[in-house]
Amino acid sequence: MEMEGKGMDGIMKGHRKNNRKALFLMAAAAAVLTFLAALGFLQSADLRVSDLLYQSRAASDGEIVLVGIDQRALEEIGPYDKWGRNIIAQAIEALNESEDCRPAVIGLDILYAGETGEEPDRELSEAAGKYGNVVAACATEFGDVLADSGDGDYVLDKGAVTAFEEPYDALKAAAEQGHINAMLDTDGILRHHMLELELPDGRKVPSLALAAAEKYRVYHGMEAGKKPPVDGENFWYVPFCGRPGDLYGEISVADLLSGDISADYFAGKIVLIGPYAAGLRDGYITAADHAKLMYGVEYQANVVQALLWEDYKKEAGEGIQLACLFLVLLAAAAGFWKRRVRTATALWVILCGGYLGLCRIAYGMGWILHVLWIPVGVTILYGGTLAVNYITEAVEKRHVTSTFKRYVAPEIVNEILKEGTDSLGLGGKLGNIAVLFVDVRGFTPMSELLEPTQVVEILNRYLSLISECILKNGGTLDKFVGDAAMAFWGAPLPQQDYVMHAVRAAADMVSGSQNLSEELMEQYGRTVDFGIGIHVGEAVVGNIGSPERMDYTAIGDTVNTAARLEANAPAGTIYISRAAADALEGRIRVRSLGDTVKLKGKKEGFEVLVMEDILEPR
Question: Whole-angstrom Cα distance, residue 188 to residue 44?
């Protein structure tokens, strides 16, 4: 069975080569996806999905009150560009109406830079200084500038402070300062807050929110708050407690000036005053809501609340996350490889769902993970490996079918396809089988008288008959050896009545050879016939050999005995063992030869029988 053995070798070598290639492709795919993540290909989508997963509403503690320069205030007081600074001075006075119920902090989310020299300037600075609870706004502009490196070279300093606007001198002297810069992420979403502003002269200016939170703690005799973890540029991630409008109680500056709200309502609280009207253009898209603008004063309120709660989050290091991403993707690829769709899908759901759950748990513990990196990478590998699995399976099926269908019954081919080519590795299973050996008697003398082409033609016709009889009766054609052949039944699939199948195959060979013999007698004046031996018993069936060269075959004493029976069987005769005869007792007619036929390697008393006829129809 040289041709078939080479076919087996080809499958195994191709299988090992495919495994090596698969391992390489898994690592390459994981590396490419990790590299793309590092380049930021998922950054925008990842940030937006992270906002959906991480940002959630939470009830504030009620210690922050927003006073809006809203549409009602603009209608009652007049256009904002006509307001004098004394309007806010009056609001401060109204909030501090009684010594017993003053706010802990009044934060002005309004920039009053540049002195006008008019009376309203004096009123505002006096009101701010009189009560000592006002934090005034300052702001900076950033840009790229060439800076002296100190050794005569110039380097580009990205994000350098190019301008700083602070309150006019009188207000600056009367109140504390806090910057109100709102710095958007690269996708235009407000997620981070600059805790402190470092000026070129070395000064550090806290944010308005930080100054207000610290002042609140001092007012209430609390310990200094723990500051949030910041990155190299002094930014930290803001966990918003509300969406746009959640923290605004619709208190207008007009309400303070009219006295409609008692000063007691603001006692001991943080009051933030700022624009709250669309026309004043102080709104941002934030992580809390991508569809609706949040006004700057409400953004400040969210930051203050996070500082009071000390609910800080820290983004996990990129390097660690990339390393974990690569390992997870590599493991996922290995998990998906050659798995059934149901198994692969279950693994995909577990990995993606489990990771999203891990992200939520990590967020609750103060760590921010990239939400999309692993699910998107795993999903790409899931789809890719399903496609590769399908293609590979189709190729392997075609290869296995084309190789084995020539000498294995169709149901055995189907079993191999079901188990996959992994079942074609070295090893075997012990089981009961029926083994048949057949040899063409008289062929060698006849071949000496014929032309080689005639010899090949006659041999092929006999071997084709043998193959047809074996496969028709559900057997496995193990091998051809010259003009002889070996077959077995009962493996690799269990077969009912496998001994009868073997006997029927032998009977079909004998009857089929008669027509061939008649043709040979007419053409060449000579004839040939079959000698057949059948034995039943235990044998090991499987892939025998080395990884480089193997055969799918059966080995054991049962095989040897069947071969000895065939070697002694005369032309046109089927020799069977007592074990085979007993298995078919009453179903076949046999004639015992006792132990008159001596089989090589067998002790005295081994009974040989001639199978004469099958008593039951098919």
Answer: 10
The backbone torsions φ and ψ at residue 292, rounded to the nearest 5 degrees and listed phi first, read -130, 140
Residue 7's pLDDT is: 45
Residue 88 tokens read as 């806010």
- The per-residue DSSP string of 17-47 comes to HHHHHHHHHHHHHHHHHHHHHHHTTTHHHHH
State phi, psi for 476 to the nearest 5 degrees: -105, 120
350 or 426, higher pLDDT: 350
Threshold 0.70, pTM exceeds: no
Q: Percentage of residues in the chain with pLDDT exceeding 70? A: 88
d(CA 615, CA 618): 10
DSSP tag of 423:
G
Taking the CA atoms of the chain, what radius of gyration do you get in angstroms? 45
C-alpha closest to that of 353 among 479, 361, 395, 616: 361
> How many of the other CB atoms lie within 10 Å of CB of 441?
20
Q: Give the pLDDT confidence of 395-410 residue by residue, as tens digits.
A: 666 665 655 555 455 6
Find tokens 């049962």 and name the residue. Answer: 558
Helix (H) or strand (E) segment spanning residue 284: strand 283-286
Do residues 214 and 206 make contact, with C-beta atoms less than 8 angstroms apart?
Answer: yes
All residues at 6 or more sequence positions from 568 whose CB lies less than 8 Å from its CB, including other chains: 533, 575, 597, 599, 608
C-alpha distance from residue 345 to each of 25, 41, 109, 319 (Å): 20, 25, 52, 29
Asked if 338 contacts 392 with a C-beta cutoff of 8 angstroms, the reply is yes
Contacts of 24 (CB under 8 A, 6+ apart): none
**C-alpha distances out from residue 604 to 336, 485, 534, 535, 569, Å:** 59, 27, 19, 17, 18
